[in-house]
Amino acid sequence: MNILSRFLLLILALHSPWPLASFVDGSGVCPHPCVCYEHADLVDCHDRRFEHVPRGLPHSTWLLKLGGNNLSVIGTQAFAGLWSLRVLVLTSSNIQQIQPQAFFSLSFLEKLDLSWNQLTTLPVDFSSSLSSLKELRLEHNDLNHVSGHSLEYLDNMEKLDLSYNQLWSVGPGVFRGLSRLRQLYLHNNRVTVVQRGSFDMLPGLEVLQMSNNNISQVDTDALAPLHSLAVLHLEGNNLHHLKFKTFISLHTTSTHILLSGNPWSCDCELHRVFSKILHVRHLHIDDYHNVTCRDPPPLAGASLAQVNSQLCLAETATVLVITGTVLVTVVAALVMAERNRKRNGGKNWDSESQSPPS
């Protein structure tokens, strides 16, 4: 079957409530109560109350749907013999643990969907048999930490979704093996700092989604390695201030940045930073008019774009008042000093004129 025909049958299989046809082929009987689709190599075991990965699956299986079950644990070599498998769907299956070498023999797998489960960790050798994987979905789990060793063999990965987990950090080296990664989704986690080195070795990354974390700091050179970054989501975090150097280090053709929904401390310095960014040709703050102040209290809820001139005007006025006060004080001191000098000079003259001749 050619690729186009397989793709069309795949779409029908995924969206149709009825099986196209059940079959028995040379590789074995379709395991009950799964449904196997004729000539398409698609096996649907979705929502069949399985507690373990079923055995006896046709070796020619190209797509396997196992979501909606109660698998709990994916055991060692659970998919042994499925050399042709390209797409594996394990969503919403109450998976709490993946044992070492669970995906042994899946060296041609291109898409793995583990979303909506209860995973807290990934085994160290998670990626050792997944060198062809292009898309990995791990959103809506309970991951609080990801080791770089778990992902290091994903050389062909293009899309990684780790959103809606409990990640508190993405430290240096975590993504070092993902040199072809184009989309990285980390939104709705608990990340507090974007650390320098976190995104090293990701020269092709185009989309970085980090909204709705607890980010209060972006290290100056953290974004510098992202030479292809087109979209950066940082809205809904805990950013109060920004450094211009953080974004000027982005040597890209064009990068769109989203920064609204943060508790900005609006002052003249913040206005200057945003103004500089807005004047850099390849940087675009798409939601600038939605960037609002939390502090100082009189400006709470106000748009930075509307109050920026007032901020610097107030600061300039304050500086002028302080400068004027200092100048007046200095001038007054000089005048007093001159008066004292003249007064003391006059007394000395009188003293000399009254002295008797020797």
Give the key terms.
358 residues, alpha/beta, twelve-stranded mixed beta sheet, two-stranded antiparallel ribbon, 15% strand
Structural overview:
- The protein is an alpha/beta fold and 358 residues long.
- It is 23% helix and 15% strand.
- The chain contains 5 helices and 20 strands.
- The strands form 5 sheets. It has a 12-stranded mixed beta sheet with strand order 3-4-5-7-9-10-11-12-14-16-17-19, with no helix packed on it. Strands 1-2 form a two-stranded antiparallel sheet.
- Strand 16 (231-233), helix 3 (244-248) and strand 17 form a beta-alpha-beta unit.
- The protein is elongated.
- The relative contact order is 0.05.
Q: How is this fold's topology laid out?
A:
Layout: H1 3-15, E1 24-25, E2 28-29, E3 35-37, E4 42-44, E5 63-65, E6 73-74, E7 87-89, E8 97-98, E9 111-113, E10 135-137, H2 148-151, E11 159-161, E12 183-185, E13 193-194, E14 207-209, E15 217-218, E16 231-233, H3 244-248, E17 255-258, E18 264-265, H4 268-278, E19 283-285, E20 293-295, H5 304-354
Parallel strand pairs: 4-5, 5-7, 6-8, 7-9, 9-10, 10-11, 11-12, 12-14, 13-15, 14-16, 16-17, 17-19, 18-20
Antiparallel strand pairs: 1-2, 3-4
Oligomer: single chain
User: What is the residue-averaged pLDDT?
Assistant: 86
Approximately how much beta-strand content do the residues carry? Answer: 15-25%
Unreliable parts: 1-5, 16-27, 317-321
Helix content: 10-25%
Encode the helix/strand succession as letters. Answer: HEEEEEEEEEEHEEEEEEHEEHEEH
Order of strands in the sheet with most strands: 3-4-5-7-9-10-11-12-14-16-17-19
Shape: elongated
**Based on helices, strands and strand pairing, what is the structural class?**
alpha/beta
Distance between the termini: 132 Å
Taking all Cα atoms into account, the compactness measure Rg is 33 Å
Please count the helical segments. 5
Number of E-type strands: 20
Major sheet: size, sense and barrel closure? 12 strands, mixed
